[in-house]
Amino acid sequence: MEVLFFQKPSGCIVAPLLALDEVVSLLKGQVWNLGLSWSHSFCESSLRIYAQESHYPASAHKSDAPFLKQDASATSYVVSFLSRMHTKKEYILQNSTTPTKFILVGLSDEPHLQSIFFSSFLGIYVITLSGNLLIILLTLADPTLHTPMYFFLRNLAFLEICFTSVTIPKMLDNLYSGNKSISFMGCALQTYFSFFLGGTECFLLASMAYDRYVAICKPLHYPVLMGQRVYASLALASWLNGFFMSFVLTSMVFRMPFCGSNVINHFFCDIPPLLKLACGNISMTEIAVFVVAVLYVTLPFILILISYSGIIVAILKISSSEGRKKTFSTCSSHLIVVTLFFGSS
User: Is-annotated flag, keyword RNA-binding (predicted)?
Assistant: First the structure.
């Protein structure tokens, strides 16, 4: 027997083949009876008919009404499924709330470890701020360091200051006061800025790799290929990419209904532990978040690999070992940063 599939994000209904006009009419009627919206619950574009046109064309109309009437079991099945779906939706809506705050579990619940963690992370935070601030001031003060590479380095240093300031101050407050709560809006902002700065760093590292590629492989064209307008545009594009990527991810996560526990098993608001607190069917959101995150990490990484492939080929063509070492030393620090960043990702 041929079958009709009502394709929906949450699953599908399988029933004997009915005329398309009759099925659409039936579904619309039942959806409106349940007080739902046809445009949101069952979009006609998602209604897929799999039929062999030679046996039973989907364009059949009133002449096929007897078949529809005889198949009362199919009709009752559709109505029953819709009713169950509506009941499930009502249950989720009744049990889902927008929490006013979340609880961050942190690194440990052991009281004697709280002071150790506080001292350690406070020291790391102060060193990070001081070191990156010093890089910015020194590269600005010395006119000989007003080059594209040091321009990107200043951007990276400023980004690191912001990145650590998104999570560590709140973690230090939680460790010192013992109050591990964070407001809903505070959690959303922390998630947004974490991914905003992380995505920006990916593209900044790719821009720095391109700068090294041009400097080593095309030294005579370097002033043209990496002029002020070019490297400023690359930096701006990096920040904008991070901004839009984070906006998409954060919007998808915080539009989900949350129910049950509000305890986040992490020391800051991150997307994976937040997805565990969501209720309802979140499989499509999980897939979308995964795809966006992978794309925004994979694309810069591929660009870095392409740049360093060209750099390695150019270095191998240098006849003297001293020349190869000197050339490689100009990009070794960047390569270490890339390895640490993408290795930890």
Answer: no
Rounded CA Rg of the chain:
29
- Collapsing DSSP to helix, strand or coil, 235 comes out as helix
Angstrom CA distances, 278 to 155, 174, 258, stand at 36, 24, 4
**Exposed, middle or buried, 304 (CB in 10 Å: 0-12/13-18/19+)?**
buried
Q: What residues have CB less than 8 Å from 125, skipping those under 6 apart?
A: 164, 168, 169, 172
Give the model confidence (pLDDT) of 192-236 as tens digits: 999 999 999 999 999 999 999 999 999 899 998 999 999 999 999
Over residues 241-267, the pLDDT tens digits come to 999 989 988 988 888 888 777 888 888
Between CA 229 and CA 232 the distance in angstroms is 5
- The two structure tokens encoding residue 322: 């001293």
Residue labelled with tokens 């394709």: 7
DSSP 97: B
Q: What's the token pair of residue 38?
A: 């046809």
Alpha helical stretches, state H, the chain: 20-33, 38-41, 65-70, 72-95, 111-141, 148-177, 184-217, 222-225, 228-254, 271-275, 283-316, 321-344
Rounded CA gap, 230 and 222, in Å? 11
Check the CA dihedral 256-259-264-268 and report its sign. Answer: positive
Q: How many angstroms separate the CA atoms of 204 and 115, rounded?
A: 36
The pair of structure tokens assigned to 191 is 């998630």
Strands 263-264 and 101-104 turn out to be parallel
